[in-house]
Amino acid sequence: MTTDRLVEFDEVTTRYEPVIGLETHVELGTASKMFCGCSTTFGAEPNTQTCPVCLGLPGSLPVANEAAVAATIQIGLALGSEIAPWCRFARKNYFYPDIPKGFQTSQYDEPLCVGGHLDVEVDGETYRVEIERVHLEEDTGKNLHVGGATGRIHGADHSLVDYNRAGIPLVEIVTRPVPGAGARAPEVARAYVTELREIVQALGVSDVRMEQGSLRCDVNISLNPAGAAEWGTRTETKNVNSLRSVERAVRYEMRRQAARLDDGGRIVQETRHFHEDTGSTSAGRSKEEATDYRYFPEPDLVPIAADADWIAGLKAGLPELPAARRSRLQQEWGISGNEMTWLANAGALGLVEETVAAGASPTDARKWWLGDLARRANEAGSELAELAVTPAQVAELAGLIAEGTINDKLARQVLDRVLAGEGDPAKVVEAQGLAVLGESDELVAAVEAAIAGAPDVVAKVQSGKVQALGALVGAVMKTTRGKADAATVRRMLEERVHTS
Amino acid sequence: MSTPGAMSTDLTTLDVAALQSALSTGEVSAVEVTRAHLDRIAADDARLGAYLHVDPDAALAAAAEVDRARAAGGELGPLAGIPVALKDVVVTEGVPTTSGSKILEGWRPPYDATVAGRLKAAGTVLLGKTNMDEFAMGSSTENSAYRPTRNPWDLDRIPGGSSGGSSAAVAGHLAPWAIGTDTGGSIRQPAAVTGLVGHKPTYGSVSRYGLIAFSSSLDQAGPMARTVLDAALLHEAIGGHDPRDSTSIDAPLPGLVAAARQGARGDLSGLKVGVVTELGGDGHQEGYGAGVLERVAAAVALLTELGAEVRPVSCPSFDLALAAYYLIAPSEASSNLARFDGVRFGLRVGDDGSADLDEVMALTREQGFGPEVKRRIILGTYALSSGYYEAYYGQAQKVRTLITRDFTAAYGGADGGGVDVLVSPTSPTVAWPIGARVDDPIAMYAADLCTLPASLAGVPAISVPCGLSEGLPVGLQVMAPALADDRCYRVAAALEAAQDAARGHRLLDELPTPAAA
Question: Which of A180, A461, B274, B431 is most exposed, with the fewest beta carbons within 10 Å of its own?
């Protein structure tokens, strides 16, 4: 691979303005494939979820999956698109082993949803990303190129194809070009995909797991000299498969293209591959030698004519969308926009909401999820939602603190045990005797023992060095193994030291 | 009961309606009927070349199963024990299916076409798979990658195409009836030139699931038989809605057998018949055989005698049908045939490590497809290319709309001023000598002149024999509005009955008996 010359990122936008565009593919979570009854479950043995239709055997015919059409319309509605009253599938013709029919059944000039937009916020500023279209198509199979160094077809000994994925419904969401993001272009791109992912998740139509390929992104980038009226030539970087990579790919292409333009070179309109390991892109097929896909209306399928009542029903059935939910919660919880962004970025929004619903105060709920739990998730390299603790348990823990049964320090011990699977917080407290000691005989004895054991400290306190009392508090806390409430201990000590 | 030997000879000449009654009364067994046809195939098919695949053991086993079930008093399908031949474009589970192409040689499909499945469920016995022009592209069956098929009326002539194996098998008594497919005339034209009845159903009324696609928006399977009644019986067995074909119409079939029976009574009074001027009428006779036009005129006169009101009807857009068809069908074919890439099934060439993926695909297609298939793929690829799409495919689709409008106008609107059916010759000529048109694709394409309009409009059309010219059969085409297939059967049956009565025997009885082997 040749090493590209790169311009420092901060320098790029002093001379150039970027225009970005995104094509996002979402694999729908329908039970069956787009045009046949095969299962869509991820991770099955290769070629076990296939039939004559999705293998493209001679004579087989497609039948469109109504649930997939409904899901696509819902995505369109969530983005504010117009839903076409009548549209058709089209055949995109090209040869490749992972498309069994020699064409991909897709949509061309008659997409199911047209227009719409998505607003995203970066550093407190809102950017509107206009949506060009949302259409429905089928996924391809998966090629495995064996024997080469790169895993790509060049240099491979042979290739294997798994058709389990072939025919899974795929929604493609295409933005219009987004100018004006300047140095924030990488973050705007990332924020757009993040927001889109949340919308799709809220709709419940896909699990949108980028690492499993159920959400995939192609990123278009061009640069034009600052102030120029015309946009530059764009490149299309394919298969950018994590949120972080979206940002990195835009950043890299901006730096690479700027260097090329600085040198008086020209940008070639081409497809580029993103490399996760290096964060760089490399040239793929150039558009000059690109295939003519010879699109034409798919004669094996009847047109989709979604009637107005059906669309109205789907619209009525839309859940609360992420942006509306965030602004509602922000108000309910009385937090700032930035705090809300942190919560959302940490993937803690739903968890906090459920914790509040289970009885915790919004402040407590946020404190736990963004504090201790976030740290633990980070240490374990997992998502917050994957921790072995439920929002109800977190609420219970917060409740135990609020009622004085445990203190923060004890709460952490309780949490350890909850995470270890020892049961709900109250049960752990009970079983382990982790409750805070009240003004019990045990505590009185500990306080008196501390006083008796340190006459010099007592003398210091009595002579006016009040801060010396801390040493006595520490001693009591130590004997009670942290179960005592520090404020109570201090009050008890003060009473006794001053009267002695 | 006669001796088995004597019975065998007779059994292949019986029509299906007669076989049905002989089977149901126990006069003959399914095994006897099947064996009779297998014997005939063994004796004559080397000469005719009607079949690509025959499995006598499997056929006899299926027949024996029917006989066992009948003996056990079990519930039997309406066609139990009736042998049938399927054009090799129909996918059959475990039975080789090639679509007449080398690229599918040896492929045994893992599933049954809906048409095949319905016939199996009805209790029919599969005799074999019949020869055809490769991927149904042709009008003579000379484009078969395996062998040409000969016309039983004259072994030096073509049996029509692309369902020429089916027409030769049925006309030659190597099957009582057969399934053909029709994209631009591939049931009707071979039926016409071999003296059979062949019907192309309304588009969407017979499932396409499991038919190896040539042109998706045009392909339809249909019956080929020796009588109108038999054709109606077979059509009813395969027709009707299929959820596995999105383009299948969710409506019940009209009563086709009933229509055939009604027609056979010979009363067509009140029926309005339009004779299409553009298909062999005044000023449109170039390329038509004089004998063909004469026989067709006589048939039309006979319709008048039966009480029909006959008048000429002009359908000006029909003149554009050939050009539109030879853009639409190849365009769809270029895409439909893309799956034959050597990756998942069928032929694979060059996979010895010396060629890369693209080369293996190219070599496979280079060797696997015959010249006519390549010609049409190239034509279709060009017509769909960016920059040419509107000029070719787009224009052809507009012509298609115009043709449909001509039909609608002819059948009349709410005012009732239109005709009930349209008639024309099925084929401009009788069967031509083998080899006569192989070097002239345009002449070959012209054979479809009369059948293309109904294909492009998706309306039903039947070909029924209407006599001989130069000793060879001539067919009359009867076209009806969409979903009114019953009208085709009614008119065809009336004509058939009147001609048989006038002649004193069936046309096929004039078929020269096969020369001693």
Answer: A180
What is the three-class DSSP state of B81? Answer: coil
* Distance in Å, alpha carbon of A56 to nearest chain B alpha carbon: 7
Mutate to test the interface with B, among A50, A292, A294, A298 (most CBs of B within 10 A): A294
Separation of alpha carbons A18 and A232, rounded Å: 9
- Same-domain pairing of A329 and A428: yes
Count of CB contacts below 8 A, A vs B? 104
Q: Is residue A3 part of a domain?
A: no
CB-neighbour burial class of residue A38 (10 A; exposed 0-12, middle 13-18, buried 19+): buried
| Contact between residue B147 and residue B434 where contact means Cβ atoms under 8 Å apart | no
Q: Which of A297, A314, A331 is the last residue of a domain?
A: A314
Distance from the B78 Cα atom to the nearest Cα atom in chain A, whole angstroms: 27
Task: Quickly count: other Cβ atoms within 10 Å of residue B255's Cβ.
Answer: 15
Q: Express each pLDDT in B380-404 by its tens digit.
A: 999 999 999 999 999 999 999 999 9
Give the tens place of pLDDT for each residue, A319-368.
999 999 999 999 999 999 888 888 887 889 889 999 999 999 999 999 99
Residues of A in contact with B213 (CB under 8 A): 58-59, 300
Phi-psi region of A93 (alpha: psi -120 to 50; beta: other; left: phi over 0): beta
The minimal CB distance from A93 to the residues B110, B247, B338 is found for B338
Phi, psi of B126 (to 5 degrees): -75, 115
A383 shares a domain with A364: yes
Task: Kindly determine whether residue A57 and residue B109, on different chains, have CB atoms separated by under 8 Å.
Answer: yes
Which region holds residue A47: left if phi is over 0, alpha if psi is between -120 and 50, else beta? left
CATH number at residue A445: 1.10.10
Sign of the Cα torsion B358, B359, B361, B366 reads positive
Reported as type and span, the H/E element at residue A105 is strand A103-106
ipTM exceeding the 0.90 mark: yes
Angstrom distance (rounded) from CA A327 to CA A349: 12
pTM of the model: 0.89
CA distance B339 to B38: 35
Cβ under 8 Å to A: B residues 382-441: 384-386, 389, 393
Lookup: tokens for A219: 């990123």
Runs of H (alpha helix) within B195-264: 228-238, 256-264
Q: Among the options B8, B139, B162, B163, which is catalytic? A: B162
Structural domain boundaries, residue A478: 441-499
Cα separation of the two ends of chain B: 29
